Amino acid sequence: MSLLEIRDLSLHRGTRALIDGMDIRVFEGDFCLLIGPNGAGKSSLLKCILSIIDDYRGQIMIQGRESRSYHARERARMMAYVPQAMDLTFDMEVGAFMELARFAHEDTPGERETLIDDCLTKTDTYRLRGSLMQELSGGERQRVLIAAAIAQQPRILVLDEPTSSLDPNHRAELVQLLASLHLHHRFTILLVTHDWNEFLGLDPKVLAIKEGKVAVTCGAFDLHQHLSSVFGCPFRRLDAGGIPVSFPVVDI
To answer: What Pfam families is this protein classified in (predicted)?
Structure first.
């Protein structure tokens, strides 16, 4: 049985179909990339999966159960979300922020502290435990958000463009962190990105979304041949240490 199954999903706003009959299956241990042009339906799909939007048609099944039937605490134990950015308008230490991630679980104080320390260690953010969230760099904050997400002990980790605002060094560190969570800790990951090349070394399942539909499902080595039709522009394929990467062709 798939961990996440989306059946004939549709979402309309007025006469416009934001999602138009999507079918997706995600299995335990998958690393899935969601790619596609702006406005293709990726953000709407995430909002439906996370039950931020619940007036869709079709079914979103999480471990065989309709997503809308989960209570908030139950859903938090199944799925954790890392947003593209998080603006905090109040002072909060990293340690206190991490404790909020355990709201769905009934821990003793000792159990909670041990688990939080472990998640901070996994993400190389333990040294930031006493720091204020507002004082962190972009890369540090993204790592803490991921630490909080895995502290929920979810079955699925959902990330929305996690590298988009980071410099090259922090991007590489974040990709390495996600690789470790996937390969060594067996997290199932669903990730929206425009920077797919960074993740192709993990041999992901790639789902290309276009005009509210799943246009292509493929692996890393077959992706290049589909990019022009998905994005509407030519791409050039290069070899990066045995990994095929693709870039849009720019005429200058």
So the answer is: ABC_tran (PF00005)
Superfamily of domain 4-248 in CATH is: P-loop containing nucleotide triphosphate hydrolases (3.40.50.300)
Answer for the pair 9, 49: CB distance below 8 angstroms, yes or no. Answer: no
Closest CA to 87 of 45, 121, 47, 136: 136
Match 């042009």 to its residue by tokens: 37
* Most distant CA atoms of the chain, gap in Å: 62
Report whether pLDDT(89) > 90. no
Task: Give me 34's structure tokens.
Answer: 């969601």
Asked if 60 contacts 9 with a C-beta cutoff of 8 angstroms, the reply is: yes
Beta-bridged to residue 34, according to DSSP, are 192, 207
Q: Could you tell me the pTM of the whole model?
A: 0.90
pLDDT digits (tens, 9 = 90+) for 20-37: 999 999 999 999 999 999
Determine the Cα–Cα distance for residues 115 and 123; give it in Å rounded to an integer: 13
Residue 81 near residue 152 (C-beta atoms within 8 A): no
The whole-angstrom separation of Cα 85 and Cα 17 is 27
And the tokens for 236?
Answer: 């050039």
- Here the tokens at position 89 are 């308008």
